[in-house]
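One such given next:
>
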Amino acid sequence: AIPTASRGFHATAASNAKVAVLGATGGIGQPLSLLCKLSPEVDELACYDVVGTPGVAADLSHIPTNATTSGALPSQGTWPPRSNEGLGEALTGADVVVIPAGVPRKPGMTRDDLFNTNASIVKTLVEGCAEFCPEAVLAVISNPVNSTV
């Protein structure tokens, strides 16, 4: 017998997915979070970044969908207001984690420079995934993608 997957994302599956976007305030993270909020497959959207996440989450929360939205920072300040739990709060119970976090390549920056910066960011976030949502599916889209994955 062929084993079946425990989770499915298709039209007939029950909608109960929590998606965490780590890097939710950046140029990729914001529109990605918007698309997740609009998806009928997502019941809970957790946004996390180092700055501005409560504002992005507050804006997304005004979109009339069934998905709840939360935003967390690594330090004090969340939307809706609550105690600081940061990365763990965003990741706990996540089924899917998408990581667009990182810095863009600047003029004069080599591929190695970009890798050194973004790899350390991705490493920290993936370690958080291992601790708080070890069964989640991870999608790493931080540049250089072929090296950070």
The mean pLDDT is 85.
